[in-house]
Structure formats: C-alpha cells, structure tokens
Design a protein that fits this description.
α3 packs across α4. The chain is built from 4 helices and 5 strands; from the N terminus they run ααβββββαα. About 25% of the residues are buried. Strands 1-2-3-4-5 form a 5-stranded antiparallel sheet, with helices on one face. The structure holds zinc ion (ZN).
Amino acid sequence: MPGIDFSKLRAEIVMEEVLSRLNFEAVTQHGDQLRGPCPVHGSSNPQSRSFSVNIRSGRYFCHKCKSQGNQLELWAAVRKMPIYEAAVDLCQSIGREVPWITRW
Ligand SMILES: [Zn+2]
C-alpha cells in the first residue's frame, strides 16, 4: 500500500471544507470558534452546541461523545473508518487527488 502524505492532505483539505461536506451548520460562532450539533455521534437536536470546532487551528472537540482531533480525524470518526481509508475516501468525496508519497 502506498503511503499518504497526511500533512499535505491536511494543508489542502481544510476543516471548513470537511465541515461543509458533512453539512455541518453552526449554531453559534465566536471568531474562529464554531459550535453546533455533532456530526460524529449525530446530535438529534439541530440546536445542540455539544460540538466545538476551531476553523483556524482545524481542531474539533465534542463535549458529549468526547471525539476530538483534526479534520481528517473528524472525517474518519464520522465515516467510522481507519485514518488511511478515511483519507482516500475524503479525497474521493471532495474530488481531489490523494497526495500519495512517491518513492524516488
Ligand atoms: Zn459528539
């Protein structure tokens, strides 16, 4: 299996893009900090603010299910996939090329 350049992937596909792909709609926004229903455990209330994400740092945290991480880890958690598969799946979903690590 070829390697994936995860840091390149995270630089190319930012948190905001992942959130919009997940149809996340923020309930509140203070600067870079958004709060809203959690796409990981699937908040039943659309006004829930258990999910907190900073679009500048690209980190998220859910106060309810305790899921946290960067945008790729968010995608992996929602899709219930290991990171490697999630990276490929995310690129395909957004229509980007997977940043494979090419050996010289
Ligand atoms: Zn959650």
